[in-house]
Amino acid sequence: MYPFENAKWIFGKADNEKNLYFNFFTSFNLETAEKVRFHISACRKYALEINSVFVPASQLDDYEDNKIYDSIDITPYCVQGENKIKIGLYCSGANTATNRIQQHGVIFSVFADGKEILVSNEDCAVQRDRRYAPIEEFITWQMGYGFDFDSTVSLGEIEPATVVEKPLPNRPRAISQLVIEPVKKGVLLAQGVFKENGGETNAEKMHKAFLSHKEGKGFIEIKDEGFAFATEDDCQGAYFLFGLEGETVGLLDFSLELDSDAEVLIGFGEHLDDLRVRSFVGGRNFCLRYKAKKGENKFFYPFARFGAKFLQIHVYAKQGKINYFGLRHTVYPVRDLPCPSSDGLHKLIWSAGVKTLKECMHEHYEDCPWREQGLYSMDSRVQMLCGYFAFEEYPFARNSLVLMAQSLTEDGFIQLCAPGITGVNIPSFTAIFIRNVLEYTLYSKDETLKDEIMPELKTIIEGFEKRVKENNLIPQINGMWNFYEWQPNLANEPWGNNGKEHQPLREQNALFDCALNAFVSDAFYCFSLLTKDSALAEKYLTLSNNMNEAINKAFYREEFGGYATFDFQEKPENALIQALAVFCGAAKGKQAESALELIKSGALYPCSLSMTIFAYEALLDTSLDNLSFVIKDIEAIWSKMLLSGADTFWETAKGASDFAKAGSLCHGWSAVPVYIFGKYLKKE
Q: What is the pLDDT of residues 113-144, one digit of tens each?
């Protein structure tokens, strides 16, 4: 039976549309029941409690017209007699890279032994949680809002729920619920007093504050649970720096006791390069605010995950007791497969790569947990391929691919980050999506996905076909971000070059680059395999072959034995371009050999961490004799991160200093060695 046949979407009264929190209340009675199931769908994130016990479950990211619902076995939480339900609901109300606006609301039902016993409707009660202030400050434009919680404010009135119009959920959850572990309490690394030194946002105030270390008698006293602090210094309060003993992605959980109401700022970050958490960088605000009440404050935030190695706490009080600050580590359940190599260094690289992957997969693949948590098709290709060998995990990949397909825009491109909405798009990221679907089909042996999303695949491939010019090449697309990797000539930011070298468009539709054409040629080829034994297959294989011939004519420079990045350039500059020319099949025979030699020579701008996958695949697909070179290259590059103390792999080799000091230290697209080891090293 469809679980929402008699249920209604419900909501409460709101005086604004953004950053809203509501609680819904109802109950049901049980005499006896072997199994009780709770079905729910929400506009954004929900937090479920049965009889005051938190149930580890959360809404998957989705779309207004294609809602996903959860079916949860709540039997272990139920008792004979009355069972009370509380549902916390968070409504962002803003378009970001990870979210798009939906009609606010929640819908649910309860079935006992297959029989409906409760549905959501106007008989349910709702309460606006006014302890959360409706702030306008984003953590980042990708992640959306943080929170500003005031425990001294009273909750709103409990009122009857209001029925709202919204499409009924039509898809059951296709992947497992996340595992929420017990809180990982931070280890105290440093403490002392602080004094503000300017700053507009809470994050900037924390980052600029003067810190003075204090310890021992007269300031801190270790207790059975946590520690007490007290100071008479001329300061605004006490600071505490906690280490989480490695990259941790999870839900904030803490407990403290104060003698009076006081503000508490909570910063989170991945390093201590500034001798503190980098809570403010480039307008980003990695800081949360909690207004504590006098007495005990125990707080758990179930609506968003934070990625961090360190937590920094500023307590605007001169005495109190910290019981703990930490994160409830949140992971998607997978089966870890062993490293196929017995080499000690390889095992360390494999282990860090696997951890990187796991910290970047929750409801869908995420590029990084600290700064963005976005689903990108280029990033996720690495994550999927690695996951096939590290976990043999296929449903998760399928769910992410469907989510991306459903983000298709009117002009035939998938959103840069699904299911969110961004103001910019990258053509090559849409082109690689076709290969992602093909690789999923080949590894999983699941033929149903390509059939399910074939309309979207056709729209994408026909869109690229229409852009092919008489020379069988596609020009760079004006108004889009012609990005390939973070290296000179390949970043091409539409909002400014961010210190990178790049060539501007000479005139409308006049600039041809090798990378885009290689990705589109490969997309045509992959689509021909997805539509095998059909007229479409023959058509797009021909288009791919024609484009490959045009790539050689426009970009190959015989004098240098390699491929130029742009059609007007005299000589090769980028290793990635050589790799892509081989990868897409344009470079063959002596041309492929010379292009690969250029990669190995080190004479060109090297591939960044994420794009080494194309260089390694080009080398190994051409000849397994290149395996020794590839393995040595991996050992040299990835061991540097390990020697720097990394337990997850970085966004780029520059680490935290890149991107004007906003570099991520846990990035899923940098787990490339897991794929290479898994596919090419013999199992021992």
A: 999 999 999 999 999 999 999 888 999 999 99
Contact residues for 542 (Cβ-Cβ < 8 A; gap 6+): none
Tens of pLDDT, residues 386-436: 999 999 999 999 999 999 999 999 889 999 999 999 988 999 999 999 999
Kindly report the length of the chain: 684
3-state percent helix, strand, coil for the chain, nearest multiple of 5:
30, 25, 45
Q: Crossing angle of helices 535-555/454-466, nearest 10°?
A: 40
Q: How far apart are CA 529 and CA 538, in angstroms?
A: 9
Task: Quote the Cα angle for 24-26-31, to 5°.
Answer: 150
Q: Which CATH superfamily is domain 10-177 in?
A: Galactose-binding domain-like (2.60.120.260)
Helix or strand or coil: residue 93?
coil
Sign of dihedral through CA atoms 465, 469, 473, 479?
negative
CA–CA separation, 522 vs 432, rounded Å? 8
Task: Write out pLDDT tens, residues 248-296.
Answer: 999 999 999 999 999 999 999 999 999 999 999 999 999 999 999 999 9
Q: In angstroms, what is the C-alpha Rg of the chain?
A: 27
Q: Which residues contact 641 (CB under 8 A, 6 or more apart)?
A: 352, 649, 650, 653, 655
Distance CA 622, CA 628 (A): 14
**Looking at domain 344-680, does it have CATH number 2.40.160.20?**
no
Topology match between the domains 10-177 and 180-331: yes
| Closest to 266 (Cα-Cα) out of 294, 285, 245 | 285
278: which strand partners? Answer: none
pLDDT at 17: 82
Is it true that the peptide bond before 419 is cis, omega within 30 degrees of 0?
A: yes
Q: How many CB atoms lie within 10 A of CB 121?
A: 16
| Domain 180-331: homologous superfamily in CATH | Galactose-binding domain-like (2.60.120.260)
Distance between CA atoms of residues 520 and 428, nearest Å: 7
Distance CA 32, CA 40 (A): 23
Strand partners for 177: none
For the stretch 49-58, pLDDT in tens is: 999 999 999 9
Residue 683 pLDDT = 59
Buried b (16+ CB within 10 A) or exposed e, 605-619: bbbbbbbbbbbbbbb
Hey, where are the domains in the chain? 10-177, 180-331, 344-680
pTM: predicted TM-score of the whole model, two decimal places: 0.95
Q: What is the pLDDT of residues 326-345, one digit of tens each?
A: 999 999 999 999 999 999 99
Residue 327: the pLDDT is 98
Q: Identify the band that residue 493 occupies on the pLDDT scale cut at 50, 70 and 90.
A: low
- Distance between CA atoms of 60 and 52, rounded to whole angstroms? 23
Q: Residue 416 has what DSSP assignment?
A: S
DSSP codes joined into one string, 99-153: -------EEEEEEETTEEEEE-STTSEEEE-TTB-----EEETTTEE--EEETTS
Q: SS3 for 142-180, per residue?
A: CCEECCEEECCCCCCCEEECEECCCCCCCEECCCCCCEE
Token output for 571: 């000589």
* 345, 643 Cβ separation under 8 angstroms: no
* Three-state SS letters, 610-675: CCHHHHHHHHHHHCHHHHHHHHHHHHHHHHHHHHCCCCCCCCCCCHHHHHHHCCCCCCHHHCHHHH
**How far is CA 461 from each of CA 510, 568, 621, rounded to the nearest angstrom?**
22, 27, 25
Of the candidates 335, 331, 451, 463, which has an alpha carbon nearest to the alpha carbon of residue 401? 451
